[in-house]
Amino acid sequence: MGHEISRRSIFRAASGITVATALGTTLSACGGGTGAGSSNSKLTMTWWGSDQRHAAYKKALATFQQDNPKIKIQETYQGYDGYFDKFNTNVAGGSAPDLMQMDTGLVAQYARKGVLAPIDEYVGKDLDLTGFSKTLLASGTVDGKLYGVPSGIGVNQLTVNRSGLEALGLKLPEREWNWNDLKAIAQEVYKKSGGKTYGVDDGGGSTLQCFEIFAREKGQQFFSDDGKKLGFTPDTLQEWWEFWAEMRKTNASPPAAITSAAHNDLTKNAVVIGKALFTFDSGVYGAGGSITDAQLDFLPTPQGNWSGAREGNFVNGGVLLSATKTSKRIADSVKIISFFAQNDTAIKDMQLLRGIPPTEKARNLIAAGLNATDKLNMASADYISQRVAKATNVLPNPVPPPQGADQIWDLLFQSNLAVAFGKATITSQSGKFFDQAAGILSA
Amino acid sequence: MTTAKTDEVVKESPAATPSDQRERDRQRRRLARKRGGGWWPYLFLAPWFVGLFGLTIYPMLDSLYLSFTDFDLLTPEKWVGTANYERMFTDDPVFWDSVHATLLYVVVSVPLKLGLALAVAMLLNRDIKGIGLYRAAFYLPSLLGGAVAIAIVWRQVFGGDGLFNDFLSWFGIKGQDWISSPDTALYTLILLAVWQFGTPMVIFLAGLKQLPKDVYEAAEIDGASPVTRFFKITLPLLTPIVFFNVVLQIIDAFKTFTPAFVISNGSGGPLNSTMLYSLYLYKKGFTDLQMGYASALAWVLFLVIAGFTAVNFIASRYWVHYDD
């Protein structure tokens, strides 16, 4: 489908609109930003994020335009909800943006479908990747080609309400802690708070942040290397769910209704509403800063406490910047990607809004301007990435998630919920999970 | 008709000079235009035709074609025959979850909504001071109905720490999180639908205004109680209106999307309990990149709605009374 908008693709986009209007719905693409659609003179760039991230992007892009007055940029931005729905529709309608923020979880899917442009040929020329580690670049590399440049280091950490913990007379656990330690302190929180606060939000359905790490500690991956199967065994899943069933039973974790309410809604997160002191959801202190008044701190995901347990934590690439294959402006897009990777002003503008900066140089540049919580966040991420780098028994980074991965993550969440609501037993639900996941991956 | 007369006069006019001839031609052309000939009416209709063919008929046919393909929006579609339809009925548990949720939603919400609409319409069909204000107040929720904002408000009202539980606590009842429990989430959606009874209410009100007063007067003289009058006069005379509302509300209920999408954060959860059919269709097409499968889902929905409507029309012969 060349860069021109074919008649068929216009009708295709219209089909989508008709489906939407026929349903009698208001599927308006919400969120701010200027109108979509490509024009010949402007390079279209799109991203998702919080208001703070929008402002930072715009500020940085203004600097870029001063230095490159010939490259005019049309900015489109919104929240994460619906971002990829809209992108899919745009691609189908032949109006994909030239440059986009990409999700590390989805990059393989879009690269393999020929939506993204490989940009290896620009490396060392227009694309300066000095200081980027190979592991980090792996998060944007699919089948040996580079499809996106990571904006920052992403690690999985627990966010802890430190002030709440201290108010109960409890101390922040050590970074070298294991799942039993987590259980012990979570139960302690419930006791000390007189039953007002549970310990940690229910991680039984939480994929990237914890189950994947648990599986890696057992030497298993979430997906098999070819991405066509699950990479873990039913035993592992059942053991995991039994751990969380025990957590709920002892009030170390909140009941199902609280977990369910927080699905896709950060404002209902157990830590944010004051019902727990530990959470696996990185969004509580993420790209938009903090959404709770509590003083926060950060801890690595617990380690396996059985013999032969491996290092389960890993480092990925935050979000990526990718150029699309149908774009006529790939070279210009690459210049912008390079600008965000290396330019001092851009790095300072973005701060931690797209993750911990990927290079040593960038981290040093922003270190001075960080607030106390940002510093704790960065220190913990540094600790994890150093530990992972030193570990001898760590599995290679997870393969890029295959198509359908997000459906499987959702299935894991809903399955854990079915167990927590008492609608299914662990064994029967695990069977259903494996059946349905196999169906999704073979579709 | 004057135009016809003038035409005859022109035709029969004797002694035609060349200039007369030209004048006559001009007049004839003008008359032809007046009678509706010429191309320009089509110009004004063109936007409608473009809309009908470009945005309705073509996409519908295209989606029918796509329903027999594997199409992910991003790469060209592949013909798979009836595989999508087979998968739906034999190999997709979520499809059945969504069918279950949707049927429950339709079967519970439509009668409740229409009952309430008729009851309120009867209350509002009186001559009391400020009746206009009351009517507006009762209609208001329907105007706001499809809005995302209302669905968001609903989430807050029926959440664990929401207004509804505050209300229950006055009576010493400890509520739960209605939205995030799989046993109650769908009923909050049904309640939202019932609350938006304004449109059928207005139609009922219009119907009630048409009912002949003399019949009621006669019944009153004969000593018929209000209940008898309702069941023996109002309801039978109103059946065409009831029928109209039943058909429209069933179709509407089948297509409900926005509240389910907003209240479940697009997930259809908890445990697919709010996975209304349209929401599932949307998720498959736009989120899971299975537009072929979504098209098949859409056509099944279309056929189901058509089926329900047909059954409604057939059944109507036995209970709808037209005035003749």
From TrEMBL, chain A:
Extract the coiled-coil ranges from the record.
none
Matches recorded under InterPro entries: Bact_solute-bd_prot1, SBP
> Per its UniProt entry, which superkingdom is the organism in?
Bacteria
| Name listed for the protein in its UniProt record | Extracellular solute-binding protein
From TrEMBL, chain B:
Which keywords are on file for this protein?
Cell membrane, Membrane, Transmembrane, Transmembrane helix, Transport
| Segments forming domain ABC transmembrane type-1 | 99-312
Q: Name one GO cellular component term.
A: plasma membrane
The protein's matches in InterPro entries, at most eight in alphabetical order, are given as: ABC_transporter_permease (IPR051393), MetI-like (IPR000515), MetI-like_sf (IPR035906)
| Residue ranges, annotated region (Disordered) | 1-26
Membrane-spanning regions, if any? Answer: 39-61, 103-124, 136-154, 185-208, 229-251, 294-315
Its topology with respect to the membrane?
Multi-pass membrane protein
**Where is the protein situated, by its record's location annotation?**
Cell membrane
Main subcellular location:
membrane
- Basic and acidic residues biased stretches: 1-11
Q: Does the keyword Zinc apply?
A: no
The family assignment reads: Belongs to the binding-protein-dependent transport system permease family.
Q: What is this protein called?
A: Sugar ABC transporter permease
Q: Report the source organism.
A: Streptomyces roseirectus
Question: What is the taxonomic lineage of the source species?
Answer: Bacteria, Bacillati, Actinomycetota, Actinomycetes, Kitasatosporales
